[in-house]
Amino acid sequence: MTTLFDLGPLGPLQVLALFAVVVIAAAGAVYFARKHHRDPQLPDAVFWDGFAGVAIVAPAVLVPALASPGIGLLLGGAAVGAAAVSYRWAPASVPLAGWPHGGP
Questions:
Q1: What value, to the nearest 5°, has the Cα angle with vertex 61 and ends 55 and 62?
Q2: CA distance 68 to 103
Q3: What was the pLDDT predicted at 25?
Q4: DSSP at 101
Q5: What is the DSSP string of 8-53?
Q6: DSSP annotation string for 75-89
Q7: For 84-102, how does the pLDDT look when each residue is reduced to its tens digit (9 = 90+)?
Q8: CA dihedral in degrees (51, 60, 4, 11; nearest 10)?
Q9: First-to-last CA distance in the chain?
Q10: CB of 79 within 8 A of CB of 72?
Q11: Is the N end or the C end of the chain the one with fewer CB atoms within 10 Å?
Q12: What CA dihedral angle connects 67, 75, 46 and 103, to 10 degrees?
């Protein structure tokens, strides 16, 4: 009998590697989007940061989800959690030069 979190054809090291990719990509995309949102000289950077994050995270979550829905759920939750933590952490850690005194 299979369970919801059966690894299926995925090995534990593969799941661990996918977990790392998803967490780093989601957190990095949100971090850089928040960082570039504060810089008026980079108007398109927020879009491209988000696009790059989705281009990495979506396949890293959806492809394993086809093999094992539980792993897909775990990876999706990890992506959302990493993005939320990065969103909360980024404003305090990425001040512009001279912030809040008018920026660069």
A1: 90
A2: 47
A3: 96
A4: S
A5: TT--HHHHHHHHHHHHHHHHHHHHHHHHHHT-TT-TTHHHHHHHHH
A6: HHHHHHHHHHHHHHH
A7: 999 888 765 555 555 554 4
A8: -170
A9: 61
A10: no
A11: N
A12: -170
Instruction: Enter the tokens of residue 37.
Output: 């949102």
**pTM exceeds 0.85 for this model:** no
Chain segment 39-57, per-residue pLDDT in tens: 778 878 889 999 999 999 9
Gap between the Cα atoms of 27 and 102, Å rounded: 27
Residue 23: other Cβ atoms inside 10 A: 20
Helices then strands, each counted (H, E), the chain: 3, 0
CA distance 84 to 26: 9
- Rounded to whole angstroms, the Cα distance separating 33 from 40 reads 12
